[in-house]
Amino acid sequence: MTDKNLIFIVSQPRSGSTLLQALLSNNNHVATVSEPWLLLPFFTYNKPELGLAKYSSRLAYEGINDFKSKINKEKFDNDLSNFLLNQYEQIRTKNESYILDKTPRYYEILNEITYHFPNAKIIILKRNPFAVLSSIIKTWNQDSLQKLLFHKRDILVAPKLLHQFTIEQKKNRNVVSIQYEELLSNPEHHTKQLYKWLNLPYNAEILNYSNNLKFKGKMGDPTGIIANKIPNSSHIDLWKETYNEKKWKDFFNGYANFLGSDFLNAYGEYDQINERFSKKFDQFIKQSKWNFYESEIPLKRIIKYRIFSKLRLTKF
After folding, report:
1. Most exposed among 33, 195, 200, 248, judged by the fewest C-beta atoms under 10 Å?
2. Is 0.85 topped by the overall pTM?
3. pLDDT the model gives residue 163
4. What CATH code is assigned to 3-234?
5. Tens digit of each residue's pLDDT (9 = 90 or more) over 152-172
6. Gap between the Cα atoms of 200 and 212, Å rounded
C-alpha cells in the first residue's frame, strides 16, 4: 500500500469524529480501528513541548536531531513513513481500498502528516467550540476547572490549529473540511459527498451504522454513537443546557471572549454568546500555562501549587 490508501479524520475531541468514522467505514472498502493514536509518539519527537517523558522530551529532541545531522535525513524520514505504512497495512485484512485513522488529537501534528503522507486524504471535522466544551464537561464528568485542565489544549488550542490548517491547505484537493452540525442536519447529502470525494460507491443503507463493529474499541465516543443507529440532529443544541447552568455560564462567556466573534464566524458561522471577561476563565488560562511535569520546577513548588489550585478552582 501507499499513502494514497490512508484517510485521516482530525478534530477536537467530542466533535462527532466517531460518528463520521462509523459512516465512512460502513462498507467493504474502508478498514479502521477505534483510535490508534499511532502517529503521535513518532511525529511529536520533533515537538518536545508536546511530550511528557521522564527521560526529558527536550533532551531527546536534541539528541535525535543531532543524530539525524550525521546521517541521511531524507532516508530517515522515508524509513519512518514506510514503517508506519507497514503498521497500517496490518489493519487491511480484506484488501480494502482505504485505511481510516480517526484520532482527534492529530490536530497537533497535521503538518507532519502532510509531510510524511502527502497523498493521504485528510478530513477536518469542525464543531461549535461551545458544544465541544459542553460535551467534554458532561461526557467525562469534568465538573471543576481543575479537572478541565486535562483538556486545556483541546479547548484553547485545537480550534485555531484546525482552522489555520484549513486555510493553509485550501488548494489541497486531498484535504476537506466539514462541520458536524451540517453532517447531522443533512447526513445523506454530506456523507454522499464524502463518498464521492473518496471515489467509493454509496447507498442509503450506509447511514445506519448499527451493524458496523469496525470502529468500536477502547477509544472513541462512549455515549452518543452507542445510543444511536443513525445520525441524530437533536444533539446540535444540547450545549445550551450546560451554558445556562449557573456555575458554567460565566466560564462560557469568558471562552467566547477568548475565541472572539470574528474567529467563530470564520470557523463556522457559529452562534454568538456574550463575550466578556471572566475571572473563572482567566484562572483557567493562567493554570493552563503550567506544566507540572517539567523537571526544572521544584517538587515542593509543584505540591504547594497543586494545593493552592485545588482550593481556588474546585468551588464556583
Report:
1. 200
2. yes
3. 98
4. 3.40.50.300
5. 999 999 999 999 999 999 999
6. 17
